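2024-03-11 09:14:02 INFO worker-7 job=invfold-0412 stage=load source=structure_tokens
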């Protein structure tokens, strides 16, 4: 059994919804990385070109480490920055086919530039790559494109309990990137 699980992925892959249901099912604490950064004033500013908040990752990392050190219970950390912090026993990257991700991003009224940036990041597996650089074999990725939230929660629960495994490198969305103008 793991003590600390980080659930990460490109925006709109389902991290928050899945993590909320999973933490409820497992009766464990859920920490939303973005909320943690905001509550602790770890915002360094706004990226003027892209319009997103720039987070002080070293300070966020310190706070995450404090929370982990102060707990003996299972904790799930959720957010697209989670994998940049230390302390996970396992990192789970949720992946979604870019054509599905596009409609989700559009539903949040993201600008076309931000949509394109996130689609490219998903196609290239940026979150997986970053997580793997830090955590190596402690990273798993799940293609959740065709799964319901309940099915995703069940898959992750089976993974946490050791009944199922997911490896890195089997999900490939590069074809989408190559086919786009």
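2024-03-11 09:14:09 INFO worker-7 stage=emit residues=181
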């Amino acid at each position: 059994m793991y003590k600390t699980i980080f659930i990460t992925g490109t925006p709109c892959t389902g991290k928050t919804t899945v993590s909320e249901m999973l933490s409820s099912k497992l009766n464990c604490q859920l920490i939303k990385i973005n909320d943690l950064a905001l509550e602790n004033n770890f915002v360094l500013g706004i990226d003027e070109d892209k319009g997103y908040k720039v987070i002080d990752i070293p300070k966020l990392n310190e706070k995450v480490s404090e929370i982990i050190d102060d707990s003996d219970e299972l904790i799930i950390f959720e957010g697209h920055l989670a994998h940049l912090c230390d302390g996970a026993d396992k990192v789970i990257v949720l992946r979604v086919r870019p054509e599905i991700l596009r409609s989700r991003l559009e539903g949040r009224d993201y600008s076309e530039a931000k949509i394109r940036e996130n689609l490219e990041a998903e196609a290239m597996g940026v979150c997986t790559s970053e997580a793997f650089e830090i955590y190596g074999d402690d990273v798993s990725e799940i293609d959740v494109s065709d799964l319901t939230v309940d099915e995703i929660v069940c898959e992750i629960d089976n993974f946490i309990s050791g009944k199922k495994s997911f490896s890195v490198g089997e999900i490939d969305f590069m074809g989408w990137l190559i086919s786009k103008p």
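2024-03-11 09:14:09 INFO worker-7 stage=report msg="The chain has a mean pLDDT of 92."
2024-03-11 09:14:10 INFO worker-7 job finished
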